[in-house]
Amino acid sequence: MIAKSKFAGKVQFMGDKLRMDHEVAKGFFQMPIDRMVEKIKQLLDDPVNAGVEAIRMVGGFSDSPLLQDAVRSNFPKLMLVIPPEAGLAVLKGAVIFGHSPQVISQRVSKYTYGIETCIEFDKDEHPEEYMFENND
Question: Which of 20, 22, 45, 50 is the most interior residue, by most CB within 10 Å?
């Protein structure tokens, strides 16, 4: 006895073409979409991303209406920016950067450095040029 496939009646060959029910086709994309949404949630939970107001979608998968709908429904308070030809945006950006690296004026650094902190100056430990007086 052969077990009936969950695709029975939903997937069929018609000549040299494979035809399938739209729900079957959508199912192929559900896991990657769910994982992307979870990754975005993780990124937005990171304090370095506090105050993010928009999501810019670029790359080939960004052209997918399924992904766009998932991002819109999971992040309704954020503006969604999808440039024309989102699939080519990464390639175009790489080419532009390769020709003119100065066009990238700002980016989020993997490592950051604190400012306006100081410790008590120790003349035996610290170089003299780092000594200053704080009159606050």
Answer: 20
